[in-house]
Specification:
single chain, 358 residues, alpha/beta, TIM Barrel, 2 domains, six-stranded parallel β-sheet, 14 helices, 45% helix, globular, disordered C terminus, binds zinc ion
């Protein structure tokens, strides 16, 4: 029996029932805003994305949007943050979001969003706009796919000055990467580029993964808002001192100068609560951000802090599983987290964030 079968089983059973949304509501009626997250919408992967878990096919994405348009009220960021005082019966607001800087958001996703009348927020790391540089996750993925884990471990060992034994992308991007910062991170980056035998700029141009400035500007006409996702796509837990200006302030300024719009929302790369510490939220507030998003796949309710809104990263192949991801599993996690809190433990929600997915 597969893990997915068990994971989706309650949702699949409830999906077959009449009044399924009422049944879901009975589990926890306080769930208000649903937030969904995607990265790359494409029918193909390359050595730079294969295995990262960020790519969703166009057909799957369109199926998801058809489902959202039918069963939910897709909202803008403003509507998400200012819900109606007296919502109509069965009001289920959903906010569509994208992270990173994939060009496919403009070329593939935006026209599908327009077709279904669904607005979105696109959280961008500006360093990669125009394919001038390669993001660490894509670089690690490329080296793993083309040179294998011996090459990854050699670069990691040199950077950390201790032997590394990484076996998959989750360990390399989720466990090792947050442990190297500053010079060590740069040594790791260069070591990986050496292993690939190309400069980062050459690889970025070859991969052609990321959005151009013109494409970013064009998104305004698709009812997309642009958000902050740090300049270099870094773990928020590592930021201190000058890093805030370099990673948060600089990203906001560059995105504003390209888009001509005010940047007022943020999503934490990799999506865990530990990457959105109080000092980072304080800095976001100083720079006039009004909200921030995580990927902890639990529920938002009327008391949820607008600087800790939770999203669900979706990769499903049918409506029953999408229903499960959006309606059942977040509610079950909220019950689990409440039980943990009652017992005085730290909530395990952080472990739910899909490590390499964002
Ligand atoms: Zn990201």
């Amino acid at each position: 029996m597969s893990v997915n079968f068990l994971k989706y089983l309650p949702g699949r059973v409830i999906w077959r029932m009449p009044f399924r949304f009422n049944v879901a509501n009975a589990i926890n009626p306080s769930y208000t805003l649903r937030c969904v997250l995607y990265h790359d919408i494409s029918d193909t992967t390359s050595t730079y994305t294969n295995g990262l878990g960020v790519t969703v096919s166009k057909k799957s994405f369109e199926n998801d949007l058809r489902f959202l348009a039918k069963h939910y009220t897709p909202v803008t960021l403003d509507e998400a943050l200012n819900p109606p005082k007296d919502p109509k019966k069965n009001y289920r607001p959903v906010l569509l979001t994208f992270d990173d800087a994939y060009a496919s958001v403009a070329t593939e996703a935006a026209p599908i969003c327009q077709k279904y009348g669904i607005p979105a927020v696109f959280f961008v790391s500006a360093r990669f706009i125009g394919n001038q540089d390669l993001a660490m996750d894509n670089l690690i993925c490329h080296v793993a796919n083309t040179r294998g884990y011996d090459a990854i471990n050699k670069a990691a060992s040199e950077a950390a000055k201790s032997p590394a034994k990484l076996n998959d992308l989750s360990e390399a991007c989720g466990d090792f990467l947050p442990r190297v910062w500053g010079e060590q991170r740069e040594t790791f980056r260069q070591g990986l580029a050496d292993a690939a035998g190309r400069s980062l700029k050459e690889m970025a141009e070859e991969a052609g993964l990321y959005i151009s400035p013109q494409q970013l500007r064009s998104l305004a006409s698709f009812n997309f808002e642009i958000g902050n996702h740090t300049y270099s796509h870094v773990y928020g837990r590592n930021l201190a001192g000058n890093d805030f200006a370099e990673e948060i302030g600089r990203n906001k300024s560059v995105l504003e100068s390209i888009s001509g719009k005010t940047i007022r929302t943020f999503s934490a790369p990799y999506g865990s609560a530990i990457d959105l510490p109080g000092r980072l939220v304080e800095y976001l507030r100083q720079l006039k951000h009004e909200s921030a998003f995580l990927v902890e796949s639990s529920i938002n309710n009327p008391r949820t802090d607008p600087f800790r809104l939770l999203r669900v990263s979706v990769q499903v192949s049918n409506n029953a599983d999408l229903f499960s991801e959006l309606e059942i599993m977040p509610r079950l996690r909220s019950i689990r987290d409440a039980l943990f809190r009652r017992q005085g433990n730290v909530t395990p929600a952080a472990s739910q964030a899909r490590v390499a997915a964002d």
